[in-house]
Amino acid sequence: MKNIVVLTGAGMSAESGIATFRDSGGLWAQHRVEDVATPEGFQRNPQLVLDFYNKRRRESLLAKPNNGHIGLVEMQHEYNVQIITQNVDNLHEKAGSSTVIHLHGELMKARSSINPDKVYPLDPLNPDINVDDKCEDGSPLRPYIVWFGEAVPLMAEAEEIVRRADALVVIGTSLNVYPAAGLINYVYAGTPIYVIDPNEVSVSRGKVHFIRKGASEGVAELKGLLKEQFEHNKNKQ
């Protein structure tokens, strides 16, 4: 089976009602990054940070996968689909995707403030993290989110997956957030790249097919394009 690697961003979940960060009126227009998405912000005002992510978590629990998520699951019947997501919601898993790497963490988990390897699932029926909640090591519990200024621990694994791609699909990300945006540079020359986004996305690579649509419509179109691509390659051989 061909390896289809899919890199998804906020636009993937937008159709499910998950608020984006960078768009006009997005979360960063309402909150300072320094206040809610840095270790320093958590030290200054843990209650503010926990309230911010508790709200995100409750929104995520109510959200349902859209047809884009479901379309990627359907592709698993024909391809080895591996998803690398910048999103912290669990909509890919809700839809049924079998391989998902969360580069920036997961809303439905908490971790120790001093040891990033101590990670705990949160109860969907009682998902809030409270300011007095402690890890077993005695440190305050914090969201399992990779904040600005912190290392992205799964980058090396993601880079290796991209190197093995027979096609790379980019959905709903502006490719402006590093190091995740740099994954596109690990695709071998000649590997087809498909970018699904209604907005213009700048890609400094040669063989790129742009699908100027939202996630659901874009994934539906992608299925036919992948069949054409691989049939064309087979006939050339």
Automatic annotation (TrEMBL):
Family annotation (Gene3D superfamilies): SIR2/SIRT2 'Small Domain, TPP-binding domain
Subcellular location: Cytoplasm
Source superkingdom: Bacteria
Keyword annotations: Cytoplasm, NAD, Transferase
Residue positions binding substrate: Y53, R56
Any one GO cellular component localisation term in the record: cytoplasm
Residues in Deacetylase sirtuin-type domain copies: 1-229
Keyword Cell inner membrane among record annotations: no
Pfam families to which the protein is assigned, alphabetical: SIR2
Family indicated by similarity: Belongs to the sirtuin family. Class III subfamily.
Classification via HAMAP family: Sirtuin_ClassIII (MF_01121)
Protein name, UniProt field: NAD-dependent protein deacylase
Organism from which the protein derives: Dysgonomonas alginatilytica
Gene that specifies this protein: cobB
